[in-house]
Every structure is written in C-alpha cells, then in structure tokens.
Amino acid sequence: MPQKEKKSFKEDLNKKIKELSALYEVGKFITSTLHLDEVLAIITKKAANIMNASACSLRLLDKSGHELLLRSSYGFTNKKNEKIKRSLKIGESIAGRVVKNGKPYVINDLRKERRYKYPYCVTQRGLRSLVTVPLVQKDKIIGVLSIYNIKIGKYAPEDAKLLAMFASQAAIAIENAKLFEQAQAGYLNTIKTLSNIIDAKDSQTFGHSERVMEHCMEVANALRLSEEQKEVLKYAGLLHDIGKIGIDVGILRKPSKLTKEEWKIMVMHPIVGSGIVEQIGFLDDLAPIILHHHERYDGKGYPSKLKKERIPLEARILSVVDAYESMVSDRPYRKALSSKKIRQELLQGAGAQFDPNIVNIFLKTLNKKKHKAKKAC
C-alpha cells in the first residue's frame, strides 16, 4: 500500500475510533437520567458536539402520530421577531418528509432547498448545511433529530450514518424515560388515592395533603432543589399523615384538648407513617421526611428531638407548609386564622419551631402568588 494511502487509511481509522469513543461516552450521558426533558436536552447538546454542529433540534411525534412537536433545541438564540413553528405535519418541511419516508436527509445548501420552511434560519442565523435522521424505536419512528452548520456542504452521507447511530441510542433513552414517566404517573395516582383516604377521615381537612404537596413544590422550586429531591418531597407531602390512618376518628375530630393518653397516640403518627412507607419499595426514601416532619428547629419537637440542620431539609420544608395549611383551614377546635395572623405565627415560630430560612422563602412564595392573583383580576 502506497504511503499516501496508508496515511489516509490511518486517518480514517483514527476518525472512526474517535467517533465510536464519542458515541460510547454520549451513550453514558444520555442514560444518566430518566427524566424526559433532561434526556432530550442532553441529546440535542451532545448531538451538536459530536457532529461539530452549530445547532440541533429534536422533534417527537404527538400521541396521534400525525404531528411532530419541537421538544428540545440547542444552539438557537431566541429572537423576538422569529416565528418558530412548534409543530409540523407528517410530510411537511424536511423533518416531516424524513418521518414519512423513514430515511435520513442531507442538505448541502439550505438557500437552494425549496422544501425547507424556515428562511430565517438561513438569513438571520446563517445556517447552511442540514442533516435530519429519524428516531427509531422497535421499528417505529418516534421523531426526528436534526443538526445544522453554518458551512456549505459540511455533511456527507457518512455523517448521516454516524448521526443515525447516535439517534438509535437516543431513541432507546427517550423510550426508557417515557416508560419511567408512565410508571411515575401510576405511582402518583396510587399515592394520591392513599392521601385522599387519610384526609377523608376528617371532612374538614379533605384535600389537605394535596395542598401541602403543592406548597412544598413551590418552596422546592424557590430553593432550586434537584429533580430527585423534589420528587421525594412531592410524595412525602402527599403521604406525611399516612400514620393517622390507624388513629381513631374520635381523636382526630375531637373539638377540645386531647388527653395525655390521646396525645401519646397522636404523636405516634410520624413513626407509624415512616414504618408504612418503608415497607413500600419505591417509597422508602420518604421515611426520614415523614418521621421528622414534626421536629422543631430548637430541638423540642417529636419523635427524635432533632435540632436545626440535623432535621432533613425536606422535613423542615414540610413542617412549615404543614403548619400553614393547618392554620389556614377550619379545625374542630378553632376556625381558620386570618392571613395576617398566620404570617405573625410563622415569623414568631422562625428559629424556634421552624427553620427561619424556610419561613422567609415560603412567605415570599405566598406573596408572589398573591401578587399574580391580583394581576389576573
């Protein structure tokens, strides 16, 4: 083999090794999470990186199978005057044709492609080359992946093959994330049913657990907790009172002060509740939150008399929100408190009963909601 051919062969081989190594690394990134939006964001970013692309977009078929919805993009800047089409019909534009024909599409100069529907990508963003490949899962097309470059004639058929290899990994990750979301929805429905059973024991607190969960999510978003933390806190908010399921209704609805014996029964509900969720495999992460949501910041709570940061963060959030929901609702022993009185109670309890930081953040979320409600009116 001539020296020149040897050099070319070696360069091609090194390129393929580099590409396959990159595909392997990308595969690890894609499967690092099961949250669909995160998976899609990783796919578009990594596809752009591996193909040295200027931008990337990903569309998935809707439930009807007739439209492609834009679900994620990378490298595009949002400009006020741009009208980005969020959905495409099968056969429309390049992406729609790829789904219809089931084959990759390579364009060397978008300025000369009449079927391309987005002239602003050419004029404003200066994009020239395009490769679009189908996302295929079990012989079924679920969407398309497109990469763009500012250079003319940037991509060859070999690049389409490489992107198709990447797309096959991406399709598996997307399908796994979808299945995970479906399983989560099933779990959440089961948990909501359990929480409704608990709340139904006392007609005056019906819906309490769901409202607690919603407020907890607002605080979690303000604190920028991870998706995993938010998920656990969401379920804990719904099931924090599950231990009350075995408490006599007469105690729960008693309009007067509880006796010592009745109080001993009542304070057991966090222990009973944490014990219940520990027995359910996918809920065992909730146990510490449910167990400690009646601890006090000053260490005078129950059942473990934990103090300050020794109390799990999620339990400290739940403690504030649960107290608020209790005060805002009518109870057998008193009427609901006014907004002003509730604010005073929370601020007075900050540093003693409650984590002061959580109190401040929670009150800010309430103010934001109040401000939005006024604007809507």
Report mean pLDDT, rounded to a whole number: 83
Which CATH C-level class of the largest domain is it? Mainly Alpha
Low-pLDDT residue intervals, each spanning 5 or more residues: none
Radius of gyration: 28 Å
By DSSP, the count of extended strands is 6
Run of helices and strands: HHEEEHEHEEHHHHHHHHHH
- The helical percent reads 40-55%
- Percentage of β-strand residues: 5-15%
Give the spatial strand order of the biggest sheet.
Answer: 3-2-1-6-5-4
Treating each run of at least 4 consecutive H or I residues as one helix, how many helices? 14
The CATH superfamily title of the largest domain? Hypothetical protein af1432
Structural class by SSE content: alpha+beta
**How would you sum up the global shape?**
elongated
Largest sheet: 6 strands, antiparallel
Determine the oligomeric state from the structure.
single chain
Q: State the distance separating the first and last CA atoms.
A: 80 Å
**Total domain count:** 2
How is the CATH topology of the largest domain named? Answer: Hypothetical protein af1432
- The CATH architecture term of the largest domain is Orthogonal Bundle
